[in-house]
Inverse folding.
């Protein structure tokens, strides 16, 4: 048995698609590129491929490091690699940056061939279903007729669910972690505050800030700070920061000012600043809107059981007790609908302190769950 | 028995204080005004006075309507009035706009006599303890040596608690609704995001926007939207808005844009716009900072029991099950500390769907609780 380790240095590939892609909105994208990383080898009968779908701010860079930056570790590196739960000695794992994102795939930052300028505000609204359609074309090119599994956390889990509905024959397993069948009003509300912060930044210029050589960093910073609060649990924040003062002892005098006083303020500002350096504001709008719009039961008059009926995959769902963004109740809605349709469902509710972010962390029970589940898949596909 | 009704048209009064007020920060305010409303009559032995302390965005205008605007109903009009739980036929009720707020009392918008210009960013940081000291001076002027009760919800409850600690002999009852002994890291985090939105609005001009004849409305709008999400419960938002589309049926086609699509977006934008029209940005910073800093157990090394020991009032605390800003656990911390000091404490946990905002609403159990408690006080003071 190989020691668990990293997939090492990975090089992203770009796939070009020339056929227009019709979108849910009625608009279409004429031609587009998707940036992709793959890990492990596709086996002879092409049965060991796993698609990893990303959430709001992540990308195709799921595992390993990049040649230019050894600190640039993939966002799910603890999950994907040799000897890891999704074992790249057995599986061929694919990470893809979604259409409309800002890490190499075609999106608002890309040059619109029709104008020679960045798409900006003219880039169409894209949905989870559109992403899945784009990913299906990628599967065609990769020669994957049927995924051993499509997996993801949060918004990534929504893509996995949508795969099971849109392309039931093309995946054996659907793995959706810390996900939901649709956003709640409160979820949409948080998204809308973040979008308002971005939109109302004077540097946003209605989405065409590229032409002004500027980035609406103030808005992005606030958007990320809000998001970050919803990714952590209250208990986790209390544990990590409490009321600790920045650079001082808890009992020290307050400084009585509006600059950073508490450690948690410093942390949030740091997260906001970092995010504003690398993330595209139009992509933030686009991806939060895709989240808002996701609601597979909409076409079945709100009936989630009917919505899930086309699915034939086996399912693994997992949720974390302290996740208040997509709490376990939301995963249970999906589980109950799947049971009602007679699907094969495993569900784990994991008592972990780290809120929504827990799906990215290496809680031992969570890791064991995933390891065991993918072990079963590996046996099924003789990987 | 009089029919329960409104106190009618009320006229605010302004009280001028010329002696400097030393603040917790070490700074002082040389002279200041407080805007006040009173309802009912102070009885002969001056034993029936009730002080109502306000939370973030409220004011001295607790009950009734103002002469200029019959729709301008006081923020706790369902609680205070003839025949209401705090019965103005029996109690002399005082509402005061706090120092640093923006409804008439001296604050960042006021002219600094030393410069002839608005204080703006130079207005000192003010704490809950400072407010209580200013309110105690008001009590002196009103001839109230001892309040029958000091009461408030949320931040108003913190002032009531601080009264019990700072001036134990000057109140018979302390009524703190939906409050907390100090903010959690998550509470501070939400405040900091709101402040960042305001501070980073280019129209903020470092707090001296008055000189530019402009108001940082974009920042205020985002700040209020964030706040508003934390005042409502998730269930309440789901009930009120769900995923309803603006101006259309739930099953209608999405419009696939970034403008208002969902009802909850429309509601939040409306709340944000309205708030930005009337609230002062520096006051928002000042009051959220007062919230952050409130921590009476800080001077006792984190020991809340020791912090509450000076108090001699009787206490009523109440909390609402769906309040996730200051959930019942936070009130229970106070109750337990008070029990440990041997104080007389009543505590009610009210199963109400409306989150933190429930303290402002007329849930029948909450109303009954308050009515009964103030009935007892009225008997004690023979009001």
């Amino acid at each position: 048995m190989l020691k668990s380790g990293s997939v090492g240095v990975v090089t992203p590939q770009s796939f070009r698609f020339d056929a227009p892609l019709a979108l849910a909105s009625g608009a279409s994208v004429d031609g587009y590129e998707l940036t992709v990383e793959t890990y492990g080898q596709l086996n002879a009968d092409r049965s060991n491929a796993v698609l990893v779908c990303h959430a709001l701010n992540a990308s195709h860079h799921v595992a390993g490091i990049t040649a230019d930056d050894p600190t640039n570790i993939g966002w799910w590196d603890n999950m994907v690699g040799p000897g890891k739960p999704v074992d790249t000695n057995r599986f061929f794992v694919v990470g893809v940056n979604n259409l409309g994102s800002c890490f190499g795939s075609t999106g608002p930052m890309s040059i619109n061939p029709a104008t020679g300028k960045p798409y900006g505000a003219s880039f169409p609204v894209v949905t989870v279903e559109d992403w899945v359609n784009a990913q299906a074309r990628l599967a065609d090119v990769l020669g994957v007729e049927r995924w051993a599994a499509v997996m993801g956390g949060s918004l990534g889990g929504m893509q996995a669910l949508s795969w099971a509905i849109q392309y039931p024959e093309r995946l054996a397993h659907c793995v959706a972690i810390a996900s939901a069948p649709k956003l709640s009003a409160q979820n949409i509300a948080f998204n809308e505050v973040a979008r308002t912060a971005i939109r109302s930044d004077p540097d946003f210029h209605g989405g065409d800030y590229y032409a002004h050589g500027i980035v609406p960093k103030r808005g992005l910073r606030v958007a990320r700070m809000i998001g970050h609060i919803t990714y952590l649990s209250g208990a986790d924040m209390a544990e990590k920061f409490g009321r600790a003062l920045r650079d001082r002892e808890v009992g020290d005098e307050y400084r009585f000012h509006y600059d950073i006083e508490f450690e948690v303020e410093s942390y949030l500002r740091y997260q906001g600043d970092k995010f504003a350096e690398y993330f595209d504001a139009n992509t933030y709008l686009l991806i939060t809107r895709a989240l808002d719009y996701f609601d597979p039961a909409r076409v079945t008059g709100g009936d989630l059981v009917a919505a899930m009926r086309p699915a034939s995959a086996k399912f693994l769902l997992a949720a974390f007790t302290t996740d208040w963004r997509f709490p376990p109740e939301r995963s249970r809605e999906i589980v109950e609908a799947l049971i009602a349709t007679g699907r094969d469902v495993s569900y784990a509710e994991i008592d972990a302190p780290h809120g929504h972010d827990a799906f990215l962390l290496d809680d031992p029970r969570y890791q064991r769950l995933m390891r065991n589940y993918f072990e079963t898949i590996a046996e099924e596909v003789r990987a």
About this structure: Chain A has a mean pLDDT of 96. Chain A has ten helices and 16 strands.
